[in-house]
Amino acid sequence: MLCLSYTLSFSLRLIKFTFPLIFLLLYFLVDDAIPEAHNYEIKAYRTYESIEIDGELNEADWQKAEIIDEFIQTEPYEGEPNSEPMNVRILYDDENIYFGFVCYDSNINKLVANEMRRDSRDLHENDNVFVLLDTYNDKRSGFFFRINALGAIQDRAITNNGDTLNGDWDAVVECQSKINHTSWTSELSIPFSQLRFKKNDPIIWGLNVGRELMRTQEETVWTPVPVSFGGLAKYRTTNLGSLVGLEGISPSRNLEFLPYLLPGITQINDDDSSLETTREFKLGFDAKYGITSNLIADLTYNTDFAQVEADEEQVNLTRFSLFFPEKRPFFLEGAGLFDFGIPRQSFRRPPPMLLFYSRQIGIDEGRAIPIILGGKASGKVGSYGVGFLNVLTDEYYEETEDDDETIDIPRTNYSVFRLTKDTIAGSRIGLIAVNKDTPGSYNRAGGIDFEFRPTDRLDIRAMWSRTFSPSINGNDNAMYFGTQWRNDNFRVSGSLTDIDDDFNPEVGYVRQKGIRHVRADARWAPRPQKYGIREIWSGPEINYILTQDNELERWSISYTHWTSFSSADSIMFFANRKFERLEEDFEIRDGIIIPIDDYQYDALGGRLSSSDTRPISATTGFELGSFYNGNINKYFVNLTVKPTIRISIDGEYQFNHVTLPTGEFHANLFSGRFSYSFSTNLYAKLYTQWNTETNLLTTNFLVNFIYRPGSDFYLVFNQTYDTDATNPVGLRNSTVVAKMTFWWNP
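RE: above sequence
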């Protein structure tokens, strides 16, 4: 064990010393490389007709456009032709690009279509068609649009060759679908003003289009994508065809202006049962302007996020802080460019480190800190990606019940600069600088990173960063080096991480400091397509973590086996063994202490999921085992009911019971959503959460009406209840606001 510790320490120091040399070597090796040519090409047809977005495709120019009608499967039978015919046509005019889909279906009665709401999280579980546009044609980023047979749309901004998906990005588009006797059709109109691209002669964009047929779990695409990327295959920007024929169009440099007005009222019940009422009326705006043809500036004033859904409650049974995703629109626009840190191993896990974490701006322990003014510029300049952000937040003061916890936040300025350089297809190098200024103090961070993808199967990443504060001088570096290799049946990855004790990015996120971490995993991932089995994912993962003094802190080894069936049901089991050395007492809950000692404990768990394509679907799981010097029992169940195309009901319950020698506790969560869609442009939603530890029940009622493309009306009603029976105050606070936005594109 001691030998392994010294070997790991030496490896990390060697990588830290040679990182700048590796960085420079890769720059010169790959800077002049030429990306491979596209093998698939489609020409868009210029139309001078007025195209009505009604799902009919009855304008004459649709019949003059070239047709894409040959597709191949990525699921379930890679390389086989599509089982149901489809054709795609593309038109454009001075303002928009149009996509027309005709999806034939020999069994239209089994069409899966039960989502009408825009950006519904289950839209991918419906029969749908999709478009991926790489408007820079750089094989690194793109815009993804998915439409179902009811005309509901889901849009995403894609970066890092499909590894990073921004599902909260919204474009101003129009789409409609129509279900016929033997087919269904969709029309999609995307204004050029919503896309970023460079004016060239000729203009060539990367393109892929495809379809998902849910009753057979079939996914087909125009341009082949390696099946080894699984569900992320459709987002791959390396594997695209070419869209040509776009002539006489220019990137929009026009001003986009989105003002809002918001009247509202808030009532707060104090412990003495007095009622405090506050009325407000706010005005603000967001604006967008093209500095160059593909470098866009965003400005926000008196920013408001009243329509943003509350964070999902989480239970923390670790010594480390929780991670919550960003949901605020201003910070989501172009967010992928600002990514810098240690990549997460799955979407279910928090990232180990982010040098820039936008939730550090305007949010403090769940409280909204007023944002006075914010500006951002992001886009492409040749082969360079450029991003700059500057935000000014107002001072905030709040007296709490405990005088020792009085919140006093001064006016603060935040700024971020990000620069990346594209090299060969899918590879890049970059740097970042982050600054936080408060009266009399500052916190700064900077770093360099690279990603090298010589083939589709191999991915190498590295990062080095450092923080700067007036009171800290010395051990404030962080380093990462990782690689991943895959083929059709196997996947192997490994990484080394070194984060110093004093590394302190105040505008970032660090799960744990003062560690040296080695990680490795291997996965066997065959696709038998026999006996009802579609895919298997099976293999071990090892984590070994030292302190900065090369002393063992903890290790874990786990084995996970997941099987997906042709019915879209799945089952997963896992087993793990963990070791942890506590150097100080861990108070996991008030009065419940895990003392200093060495602990080794084991757990078994599993999860069973039914297909979300059914009107009633469910997921349930468990984890049982030892926990430090005690035991833990975890259970959860999620139930979704969709009785009609308009109604969706979703409920989840999490049960956690921990028993330790110094005490026991329950940490349970309940959440429920009820949604009703009047149309694809009007819906109402009720979202409720209850946390048994905080004894708080929160409700969020939202009505959203898209009264014209890009313009919304919101009615929001939030309430918080105290469910502690010993507290005389039940209703803690209520807020009602109405918000109207108007998208103006002069």
